[in-house]
Design goal:
Blueprint (H helix, E strand, L loop, with lengths): L1 E11 L7 E6 L20 E4 L9 H5 L21 H9 L5 E4 L1 E4 H9 L2 H7 L2 E5 L7 H13 L3 E6 L5 H8 L4 E5 L5 H8 L4 H13 L3 E7 L7 H14 L3 E6 L5 H6 L18 H9 L3 E3 L1
Parallel strand pairs: 2-6, 6-7, 7-8, 8-9, 9-10, 10-11
Antiparallel strand pairs: 1-2, 1-5, 3-4
Length: 298
């Protein structure tokens, strides 16, 4: 089985227990304005442009003159079809390597082979491989095959998911993971839909079932200023998590580290200028969760 992979990150310490390799898959049903991996949202390859590397030589425009506006120094990456040979020629024509393509089809066997190169680190640290994205459940057959291959080599597996998937798909994939990291953004379905484009119905039902059959489930909530950073928001989420069978949540303070990626894709960043949050900013939320019977930590 193949999937569109845009990154394989080694030696990660924040995506499950121990030292892990994180396999990032393209495609996501949500469009969160704070997304730190905007290149993960579409299931197809995308052209990226590096402002710091570009010398303005215009060689990419010679390959794709129809993708440049008058006076442009480089092709318009937002209009480029990264799967076309012309655009790939433009990438190859850039002497500064300012153009690159995010995403390529890889087989489960190929990805497994890459991951197994670090097996010694998994065994020594209690780590393994985490499937992330985007939303890895948009590639269920690939995830199942890759996890089966990894388990055949005694490698621990983890999935980082929004849980926004059909129940059958969620169950078939999630049951094969040793750990589940469920990204939960808000306790109110209308506010969740307004921000992400998706409501909570499937997310909550999948999360409830996950706590019934999965061995290790951790809900993680990105704390976003003006969206879910109030004590009332924390209390609502805490009550819903408790009803779902959860007893803990990890809070992820908002950061703007992915802002430069939007420019590389020819997109604007809706949260430009928003200050980052830090652990000390979440003290009141942690206390609110505690009062609702949920252990919250950063």
């Amino acid at each position: 089985m193949n999937a569109m992979v845009f990154n394989i990150q080694k030696f990660s310490l924040n995506d499950g227990p121990g030292i892990r390799t994180v396999v990032f898959l393209k495609g996501c049903p949500m469009r969160c304005p704070w997304c730190s991996n905007p290149e993960s949202q579409l299931m197809r390859p995308q052209l990226e442009w590096s402002a710091s590397a570009c010398t303005g030589c215009k060689r990419c425009l010679m390959a794709c003159p129809d993708l440049g506006d008058p006076g442009a120094q480089h092709i318009d990456v937002a209009r480029a079809d990264a799967s076309s040979e012309r655009v790939r020629q433009a990438v190859r024509a850039c002497p500064a390597r300012a153009l690159s393509i995010a995403g390529r089809l890889r087989s489960a066997a190929e990805v497994c082979e890459i991951c197994l190169k670090d097996d010694v680190f998994y065994q020594q640290s209690g780590g393994g491989v985490t499937l992330s994205g985007g939303e890895p459940l948009m590639w269920p057959e690939f995830c199942i095959e890759l996890m089966n291959l990894l388990h055949s080599h005694s490698v621990d597996t983890c999935i980082e998911t929004t849980a926004c998937a059909a129940p059958k798909v969620f169950d078939e994939v999630a049951k094969r993971a040793d750990h589940l990291l469920i990204d939960m953004k808000h306790g109110d379905s209308d506010r969740h839909r307004a921000a992400t484009g998706e409501g909570l119905s499937r997310i909550w039902s999948n999360t409830i079932r996950a706590h019934e059959y999965a061995r290790d489930v951790l809900v993680r909530t990105p704390v976003i200023p003006g969206f879910n950073d109030s004590v009332a928001d924390a209390r609502l989420m805490g009550r819903r998590l408790r009803r779902a069978g959860a007893d803990r949540v990890q809070l992820l303070p908002y950061h703007s580290f992915g802002e430069s990626k939007y420019a590389s894709l020819g997109r604007s960043y809706d949260m430009r200028g928003q200050a980052n949050l830090h652990e000390e900013d979440l003290a009141a939320l942690i206390e609110a969760y505690r009062e609702e019977g949920i252990e919250a930590f950063v």
